[in-house]
Amino acid sequence: NLLDGSIRIGTATQFLQVKYMNLLIILVSILAMAILTWLIHHTSLGRQARATQQDRKMATILGINTGRIISLVFVIGSALAAIAGVLVTLNYGSFDFYIGFLIGIKAFSAAVLGGIGSLPGAMLGGLLLGVLEALFAGVVSSDYKDVFAFSILVLVLIFKPSGLLGRPAVEKV
Q1: CA 146 to each of CA 45, 77, 149: distance values in angstroms, whole numbers, following the listed order
Q2: What own/partner pairs with CB < 8 Å and gap ≥ 24 does 105-113 have?
Q3: pLDDT tens sequence across 34-86
Q4: What are phi and psi of 160, to 5 degrees?
């Protein structure tokens, strides 16, 4: 199989080995995030979706078909979930119903770590959480890597609740 190989970076004694499948997963994830970010920030659909999210009644008054926008956002979300499902299946080799709970909790943790409401922040949070979890599993124990991931979530919520790239919430008076 073409994606079974790996690439080695470094010297003969100290190197980093990355599977082609992992590179494919990273590239597809970055591409999907870039397309979604572009769609939200540079298209009419993105402006309408942001307006609908901020004030649905005002968006309707301005002539935006909010029902259509909400439906399209659900379609986009479903397409991204399908891409994520394919990537998870490529990574683990199988997929079942129960794997979604743990992945969902970790996705929430990554979004909080990166900053709720920030697409690049969620991607950064996911990458950072994955790297930290892998380092913890390699250095300490893979038995407690999930505990470590959720401990990071607790620490972020205590010390920086807005996340790495999130903006602090402004209280309206």
Answers
A1: 38, 26, 5
A2: 105/150, 106/149, 108/153, 109/149, 109/150, 109/152, 109/153, 111/163, 112/153, 112/156, 112/157, 112/163, 113/152, 113/153, 113/156, 113/163, 113/164
A3: 999 899 999 999 999 999 999 999 999 999 999 999 999 999 999 998 998 88
A4: -145, 75
Beta strands in the chain (DSSP E): 6-10, 15-19
What is the per-residue pLDDT across 135-160, written as a single tens digit (0 to 9) for each? 888 888 888 888 888 888 888 888 88
Question: What residues does 17 pair with on adjacent strands?
Answer: 8
Angle, alpha carbons 11-15-17 (nearest 5°): 135
pTM over 0.85: no
- The DSSP bridge partners found for residue 18 are 7
Q: What is the mean pLDDT of residues 95-108?
A: 78
Query: In this structure, is the dihedral angle defined by the CA atoms of residues 169, 170, 172 and 173, taken in order, positive or negative?
Result: positive
CA distance 70 to 85: 22
- What tokens appear for 58 in the block? 């005002």
